[in-house]
Amino acid sequence: MSLKNLGDVTYFRLNNEINIPINGQIPLHKDQEALEAFFIENVEPNLMHFDTLRDRFDYLLENDYIEKDFFGKYNFSFIEELSTWLYDQNFKFKSFMAAYKFYQQYAMKTNDGEYYLENVEDRVLLNALYFADGDEELARSIADEMLNQRYQPATPSFLNAGRSRRGELVSCFLIQPTDDMNAIGRSVNSALQLSRIGGGVGINLSNLREAGAPIKGIANAASGVVPVMKLYEDSFSYSNQLGQRQGAGVVYLNVFHPDIIAFLSTKKENADEKIRVKTLSLGVTVPDKYYELIKENEDMYLFSPYDVERIYGKPFSYVDITAEYDNMVANPEIDKKKIRARDLEQEIAKLQQESGYPYIVNIDTANNANPIDGRIVMSNLCSEILQVQEPSIINNDQTYEKLGTDISCNLGSTNVVNLMNTKDFAKSIDAMVRALTFVTDSSSIDVVPSIKNGNDRAHTIGLGAMGLHSYFAKNHIEYGSPESVEFTDIYFMLLNYYSLVSSNKIAKERGIKFYNFEKSKYADGSYFDDYVKEDKDISPVIAKLFEGIKIPTPADWQELKEQVQTDGLYHQNRLAVAPNGSISYINDVSASIHPITQRIEERQEKKTGKIYYPARDLATDTIPYYTSAYDMDMRKVIDVYAAATKHVDQGLSLTLFVRSEIPEGIYDWKTSPKQTTRDLNILRNYAWKQGVKSIYYVRTFTDNGDEVGANQCESCVI
Asked: What is the CATH number of domain 149-171+410-589?
């Protein structure tokens, strides 16, 4: 019986019985029965078997399932040894959802889709061999981290490692056109190419002149950003990896751009079809000045990007609007129009209620915390990538007069629950950083030269986390409590410290620093100022959780500072927290660092129907600590994210969860249960005040059980 001809199976029914209480109790044992039935009925009869490991690899190589180059970097005796070790660990999935997701989405299958060609151990083996690039000791370490689920590469890396017919290992891309037709045309081609390769594409439109602006002295000639948005949407729709997935993109616009209202209107439910964008995501970059104008209930001026670039000699995105706002208002050479700041704030909140958009990037917050020389101007499809970019200048023949730097995202996640079980944080993080480093080193997106240039210069990676709420519940800590905030602070401080240690080691080993290191806050030492002060005061409850784990002292930070100043860092950026969805199921933990939405999560799996996923370690003692995000004060979530943000050199994908009818007592300002735009305005402003760099979706749970804004970016989420 092949995978395409499965007969009567019991595992879906058994899994669905979790949702039918017995004597008021959740029958969690049904999920374990479903897991067992899945292996008996699905995996075991459809897994292709071989007499020896050599026979297996000969088959995979001869039939072009895996690459030959990486395989040839190892003695086969070592591959046998590592494979034996992996199987000796007796790995077991903890839930039906985890096993089902792995075999449906990640396990390599025969070309006809009839049989599985690998188990988890085999996929981990290929990942470890591929990322270690011939280094046997590193391969052992990566295999150990992955099989024990302390480390999880992002989907593109985990899925494609070792395969001969594969997509890229990176997750997503960020590009930006400048204000001319050559750059716009080149960016449309780049969007087509990057969408074909895989992953979502972020595009910054803030530099483009507004609708009605002059072109070559002809008044009212420019069409503005909306028609360009339609070009990108059509490009992503067309370039969809042979129909396997919908192309995905997000466009960002500065809140002080004159087209901001038209930009937001493209996502309204009643938008005219001529301007409506259905599949394109929207993001807004928000300088601090905007929040100041809202607070003072003042008018705000929207400035012509064409005039601003003409006066300041650089594209609109690269002008510090907060610092230059008054000068720009007073300058008669800059065309501008006036609106009420609070009116725009209402428009943003209304749209977030309707659609979950736009994402918000607090661009000054991001730049003020940025240790790298240059300016952050946008983010990606999940709002966690925040890196400096340089604009390109395009010639008439579409070649580069000046080759700028754009961004590719290279992601992986620590599993908080399992990483906290190790006593050697340094060894674990070093293996993870080196695995991610291989991905950035081997990435060469030459079809978009600005992406390749940015990657070659910066060597950026994005190590994050998943399973934070699972860890809190397991240890009887309430999400959003002072203890949870303190734990998050220390955990991410450790990620920061040990990733810096590893990046410094790699720089010293190779004699290579990231481009412009000498102009960074790492080089002058100022980045370390807050860390080399007095010892962090840790409460007894949290200190016990970190017992046996080396927490760096100010003296350790001082020593690291000196080493970094001497030998540099290999990676321009190291940390970023993606929303990771499906990949967290395989790890049997809550997604990212946000709270769960359901104790027994219900997922609609395409043709399969509903699958139920119980939260990690769900039991009588942990249930009180598994509060749904929809029943939680979002300020608690913001506090947790703010604690992590202090240590993350990029961003964190923060989703806000609210109900259309808000339960009584969650928010002290509420006098009626109906969700209002004021609720979202208060939460966004609170996030900004707490130093949060970006807000991803606003997800609203409606009375009829729907979720508004529940769309997901596949490249980062899974």
From this structure: 3.20.70.20
